[in-house]
Amino acid sequence: MAATRYRRFLRLCEEWPVEETKRQRDLGVFIRQRVAQAFREGENTQIADPETCDQMYESLVRIHNNYYKNKYPRLKDTSFTGVTVQDCKMILATDILKQMEDMKKGTWRKLRERFYAKKSEEDSK
């Protein structure tokens, strides 16, 4: 039975998309890592609590298939702020978050980081 569970999780991992805009923060990547940890021995892995394993799988399938999005449709595709789904995806992209983090830094800190970066490059030569 562990082999069947393992194959089901693998199939789910294959179907789950990876968002390249969310490097190191993507749910698909996180799920793949957790499956790899849980099934270290592949099909031969002994599962301590099969019922919990099945519940986790069913929950992930519901998320993947947008079960609750379809069950409870929204009237509008915006939030209370009026931001659309596409705008949210763009804002939450890793590159944009990094740019925003850099914008928060003061001018002095930016200059200091650049100076120390150049100094350490010169020291390594």
TrEMBL record:
<protein>
    <recommendedName>
        <fullName>Mitochondrial nucleoid factor 1</fullName>
    </recommendedName>
</protein>
<dbReference type="GO" id="GO:0070131">
    <property type="term" value="P:positive regulation of mitochondrial translation"/>
</dbReference>
<dbReference type="GO" id="GO:0034551">
    <property type="term" value="P:mitochondrial respiratory chain complex III assembly"/>
</dbReference>
<keyword id="KW-0809">Transit peptide</keyword>
<dbReference type="GO" id="GO:0005758">
    <property type="term" value="C:mitochondrial intermembrane space"/>
</dbReference>
<dbReference type="InterPro" id="IPR037698">
    <property type="entry name" value="UQCC2"/>
</dbReference>
<dbReference type="GO" id="GO:0005743">
    <property type="term" value="C:mitochondrial inner membrane"/>
</dbReference>
<dbReference type="GO" id="GO:0042645">
    <property type="term" value="C:mitochondrial nucleoid"/>
</dbReference>
<keyword id="KW-0496">Mitochondrion</keyword>
<dbReference type="GO" id="GO:0050796">
    <property type="term" value="P:regulation of insulin secretion"/>
</dbReference>
<dbReference type="GO" id="GO:2001014">
    <property type="term" value="P:regulation of skeletal muscle cell differentiation"/>
</dbReference>
<dbReference type="Pfam" id="PF20180">
    <property type="entry name" value="UQCC2_CBP6"/>
</dbReference>
<dbReference type="GO" id="GO:0002082">
    <property type="term" value="P:regulation of oxidative phosphorylation"/>
</dbReference>
<dbReference type="GO" id="GO:0016604">
    <property type="term" value="C:nuclear body"/>
</dbReference>
<keyword id="KW-1135">Mitochondrion nucleoid</keyword>
